[in-house]
Structure prediction request, 71 residues.
Amino acid sequence: GLRRWMRFVYAGLASGLLFAFVHVEPIRLLSLWLAGLLFAEVFERRKTLVASMCAHATLNLIAITLAIRAR
Prediction:
């Protein structure tokens, strides 16, 4: 990964930005970038992709729950 070539702060920012662009929602670019940075931090601390996937699933569950309750 990016950590082989750069410090976490730069790798995390780049990874978060890639996460945001992959989701293709320009209106939410900043919040998705921050979420991607959070997932990178989780990966950095836990050293496992499963932890980041669980964090992503949790964030999706919260978003879905809020969307349903807003109806």
User: Anything to note?
Assistant: The two ends are 41 Å apart (CA to CA).
